[in-house]
Amino acid sequence: MTVPRAQPSADEAKSDTFSRWRPKYHLLAVHGWMNDPCGLNYDAHRRQYHAFFQWNPLGNDWGNMSWGHAVSDDMVYWKVFDHPVLEPDRAYDREGVFTGGLFPTDLDGEANGNLTIIYTSTSKTPIHYTLPYSYGCETLSLATSDDGGFSWNKFEGNPILPGPPSDGSAISWRDPYVARWPGMSRALGLPPHQVYGLISGGIRHKTPTTWLYAVNFGDLTDWRCIGPLINIGRSFRPSGADFDMGINFECSNFMSLEDPDGCSREFLIMSCEGVRTGGTTTDASSACIKTQGWMSGPLRIDNAGSAEMQWECGGRLDFGTFYAANSFWDPKIRQQVMMGWIPEESLPDAARHQQKWSGCLSLPRVLTCSSLANVTGSRHGDLSNMGAFAVTPNHGGTFTLHTLGVSPHPNLERLRMRACQTRFGTADLTALKDLRHWVSPITSLRSQQWELKCTLALKGNCKIAGLNIFHSSIRSVNGANVAPDSTRHPLFVLKDIATGTEMEEELQMHIFYDQSVLEIFFNERTVVTSRLYPISIEDISLQLFAEGMEEADIAPLDVQGVIWDGLEA
C-alpha cells in the first residue's frame, strides 16, 4: 500500500510562504513536521556521516512518527532523502517509531559495513510523565541495514525489551542511546570494548533518571539492566541557578571527555521535562518548560554492581529553544559531536501550517571538557555559587574551573567559501551625545545567511554590550524584542602566575544566522539558540553597541571582529 505524502506542490515549494523563514544551511526535512535527531554516527566503511530525525511525512504536526534520513561527507553539506526509512508499520510500533540511536555493526557485533538502529517502538499513546504509565506502551526494537542505511529490515524478534524494570515506578522509558563508555568500563572493571545502552525516563515521586544497560557486543539483542544511573531527586536545582533539572529525562547521552591536562571526566547530556524556572520549585508563578541539560560527576559502584553518576556540576546546555540533543564520537576530528532540535518557537500554528514545514536541526556542535586555570574571581558572583563549574582550589589563592565546553564544529568554516568578509574594531566605535552609549557603524548585509565572530574586552565601566540585528531600513530598537532569550554568562578574572597580574577574560561571541535561526556561542561554554521571524525584510544590517556606567571619552570596551555575509551549503 502506498501512503500519499503531504508534501508541498512545486508551486508551493517555490512560494514566499514556504521559503520565507526556511533555513538554507541547516539540516531539515524536505517538508512536514520534524523533531529529534536520531542515530547520529559515522560509517567508516562508506566514509559518510548519518543523521536521522523524527519526521511526520504526512503532515505538519506531531504524529505518525517515522525516521527521516540524511547523509554527508563533512556534516556541512547534507543530502536529505524525500522518503522515510522507518515507519510505524508493525503492531508493536503502530503509534510511532520514536527516537533512538545507531551502532555501526551488524547484530552480532561484526564491523562488516552493516548498520543497526535501536529505537523506541510505541504501541499506545498518549505518553506523558504527568499521566499514569501503561507498561508496554514503550518497548525496545532493532532494525538493520546492509546498504549503508538506505533501506532497513526490522528485527523479527522485536521488541527485544518489553518495557522498563517492572516494579511499577517508571513514568517514561524511551530514547535509547548506545555506545562504548570508557569511564564506565573502568569503574565496573569491564573490557574497554564493552557496549552500554541508556534509556531515559523518570521514577515516580522520586527522580528523573536514565536506566543503564550492559549490551552484549556479540549480540546486540541481549541487554542486561545495571540500574538507574541518576538519583538527583525531583526538581533538583543547581547552586546559583534560577532553574531546576525537572521531573523526567529524555534523550540522555553519556561520554568521557578529557580536560587539557589529559584527565578524564564523565558527562551526561539529557533533555529535561517539567523544569521550573524563576522563583522556587514550588512557586506557582514560575514557568514549567522543557530544556536541554547536562551534568558531570564521578561514577560510584555499589556492592551489588549498580552504577550511579553523582552530581558535581551541571546546568543548561542551551538557554534557548534547542532540545532533544543527540551525540556521537566523531572519529575524523576525534571529538564528541552533538546536534539538537530547533522547533518553530513562537510561530502561531496558522503561520506554521501555511509554510508546510516545522523545525530543523541545529548546526553540529563539539563537546569538550573545558578548563580555566588560575582563576581568582568573577564580576558575576562567588565561585562557590556557580553550579555549572567544578571548582578546585590551587596553591596561592587561585582556582581551576572545569565545565562542559560547546563550540561550532570546525567544518562549518566551509560555509564561508563564497561569503563576503568585513572586519571591524574599537576604532570604529563612536559615542552618542550622552557619552555613555557607544555604537559601531551599521554594517549592511546582502543575505540572511551570515556569521559573526568577535572578542570584546569589557572595561571596568562597561555596563552592557550587545548586537542589534535590523531587518528594516527604519533602524530603531523601540518596541523590538531585544532579548528573546537570556542567560547569565560569567566572565572570570585570571591571574598571570609569572607576573602576578590579574585580568578579566575577554567576552568571545560567535553567531550564526540562517533565515530565521540564530545560534550564539559565548566563550565556547554558553549557548543560546533562538528563532527570529521578521515580517518583512527590507534591509538587513548589524550594529554593535555598548553602554558605560558613566560619561567617558573612551569606549567602555575594546572589540575586534569579522562578519561573513553569504554563507552557503
Question: Can you tell me about this structure?
Answer:
There is one protein chain. The chain has 4 helices and 38 strands. It starts with 9 loop residues before the first helix and ends with a strand. The model is unreliable at 281-285 (pLDDT under 50). The chain is mainly beta and 569 residues long. Strands 19, 20, 22, 23, 24, 25, 32 and 33 form an 8-stranded antiparallel β-sheet that branches. Strands 26-38-30-34-35-36 form a 6-stranded antiparallel β-sheet, with no helix packed on it. The protein is globular, with a radius of gyration of 24 Å.
Summarize the model shown.
One of its GO terms (biological process) is sucrose catabolic process. By secondary structure, the chain is mostly beta strands. It is built from four helices and 38 strands.
Can you give keywords for this protein?
mainly beta, eight-stranded antiparallel β-sheet, six-stranded antiparallel β-sheet
**What would you call the shape?**
globular
Class inferred from helices and paired strands? mainly beta
Q: From the structure provided, what is the oligomeric state, counting identical versus distinct chains? A: single chain
Measure the end-to-end span: 36 Å
With helices defined by DSSP (H or I, 4 residues minimum), what is the helix count?
A: 4
Number of strands: 38
Mean pLDDT: 91
Largest sheet: 8 strands, antiparallel
Instruction: Tell me the fraction of residues in β-strands, as a range.
Output: over 45%
Low-confidence stretches: 281-285
| Structural Rg | 24 Å
Give the % helix: under 10%
